[in-house]
Design brief:
By secondary structure, this protein is mainly α. It is built from 4 helices and 2 strands. The protein has helices at 33-44, 64-90, 98-111, 130-159, and strands at residues 122-123, 126-127. It has a two-stranded antiparallel ribbon.
Length: 162
């Protein structure tokens, strides 16, 4: 037997014939050995999957759970960049290094509204950046507030009689 070729077809194709099948058994046409191997897998996946729809009739990706995930993903990215900025300043990283310049330039937009609120003590190149800490706290509270508002509005919409 050649290992590349499928095994020889046994007598009959392994599926019950229409006349001998019980009502609960499926009937299959005569299939080649290759079709016997691939047919169950092809039948499990339609050519195009229908788009899942939530109970409200909206696409499932637009549910409040998905919106919450997107908001917290954005928050996680921003918070991670701010934590890196905080530790670069705290440890006195070289401000001329490419990575430090990149982090400072990306996070400057997020920290700028909080600059000057508190003084930032510094000693020998190390800076305790309270503006970055304040930005992290405010953005976390803002994300939590937005998610809470969206979930409250969605729950009221579901509870309202139609």
């Amino acid at each position: 037997m050649n290992p590349v070729e499928p095994p020889a077809e046994p007598a009959g194709n392994g599926w019950p014939d229409a006349e001998t099948a019980l009502p609960s058994e499926p009937t299959r046409p005569n299939l080649t050995p290759r079709e016997q191997l691939t047919e169950p897998y092809n039948a499990a996946w339609p050519a195009r999957m229908p788009e899942p729809v939530s109970a409200s009739g909206r696409p499932r990706w637009l549910t409040t759970g998905r919106v919450r995930q997107i908001i917290f993903l954005i928050l996680s990215v921003v918070e991670t960049l701010l934590v890196i900025r905080f530790f670069l300043k705290l440890l006195g990283a070289n401000p001329d290094a490419a990575f430090t310049i990149f982090i400072y330039s990306v996070t400057e937009l997020f920290v700028a509204p909080f600059e000057g609120v508190f003084p930032s003590p510094q000693t020998s190149g190390s800076v305790l950046d309270f503006a970055t800490l304040l930005a992290m706290i405010v953005y976390a509270l803002l994300a939590w507030l937005i998610v809470s508002a969206i979930e409250t509005l969605a729950s009221r919409r579901l509870a309202r009689p139609t």
